Amino acid sequence: MTTKTQFRNQAKSKSSTSDKKPTKRIGTKSPPIQSTSIPGLKGKGLLRLGDEARLELRDRLNMARPIFSRVVNVSERTIAKVEADSQTATKLQRPYNEVYRLLEALDDVIDANSLGSWFQSPNEAFEGLKPLEVIERGEIDRLWTMVFELQSGMPG
Length: 156
What we know:
The protein is mainly alpha-helical and 156 residues long. It has eight helices and three strands, in the order αβββααααααα. The protein has helices spanning 4-13, 56-61, 65-72, 76-85, 90-106, 115-119, 131-136, 140-152, and strands at 33-36, 46-49, 52-55.
C-alpha cells in the first residue's frame, strides 16, 4: 500500500480536464438544478438540469453511464430506467448506497474533483489495478481498508 502522501499526490495528479464541470458562459442563464428523491437511494437521488436527468452519484463522479454501471455493478439499462422514470430498481440500491458511502469517505482523503478519474486510473496500492476493477472483482473491502489506513494515519 502506498503512503498517505504518495496516494494523495497520485490522486491529485490524476485529475484531468475531463473531470472539470463545463465553464458557464457569460451572459447565459443555466436552468436551475432540481433534485428528486428516489426511495432506497442515499443522497439527493436524481438531479435534473433542463431535459437531462442523472443520478446524483453519477453526476458527482462525472461518469458516463457505461463506466458508472461498472462502478455500481448493474446494467446500463437499469441506470437508464431509473434516470428516466425516477424509479428505483431493487438491485441498484445496495451497490449504489455502498459506493455512495465510499465516496463520502474518500471525499475526506482525495480531492473531490479527482474522484471520477481516480476510479479509472491504475493504482499502485492495488497492484496496478484501477479501483473500478477492484470493485468489479468483488473486492470493494480493499478500498475500505485503504480509506481506513489513510484516515487513521496507519502506514500501509
